[in-house]
């Protein structure tokens, strides 16, 4: 029975990451391919099924869009498009919200999810890993006195859900670990601890 459990766990450790990675990639490819109509499918264009062709088309469109909007003319067209979207009552709220989140998370020089920290949550004395997402703004900032930071506390083992907190900067502890290492630590429920930082030689 002990050998059975040992070999079962060893097999799970090999297959679980492979299966989950395959599922995530397949889901991503399928979602992106569903954006394009069937008229652009491999069977419609070439007469045979080519897995991933529509995904490559979507990727090519994204790259071309990014290249075209990198110059002055492209940016002017984007500005006109955003002004048009801002005039549609229902669409305006959804579009602006999604765009603000995208600009915050995907900006090359942004600070969101660039640093892992320790915060006391859900009570004083209990610590968890969080990610700095910025500083409070708007009306919320006017009600906070002092230096505060915005952090995202992910749940375990699914880090895509979590809690948004505004905490005093003095109450967080900066960690000398990468965001990837912190995410692995969270997803593994603390079982896969990142290695300690190298000691500086004197």
From TrEMBL:
The keyword Mitochondrion does not apply. Keywords: Membrane, Transmembrane, Transmembrane helix. Pfam families: DUF502. The chain crosses the membrane at residues 7-29, 55-78. PANTHER family: COV-LIKE PROTEIN 1 (PTHR31876), PROTEIN LIKE COV 2 (PTHR31876:SF26). This is DUF502 domain-containing protein.
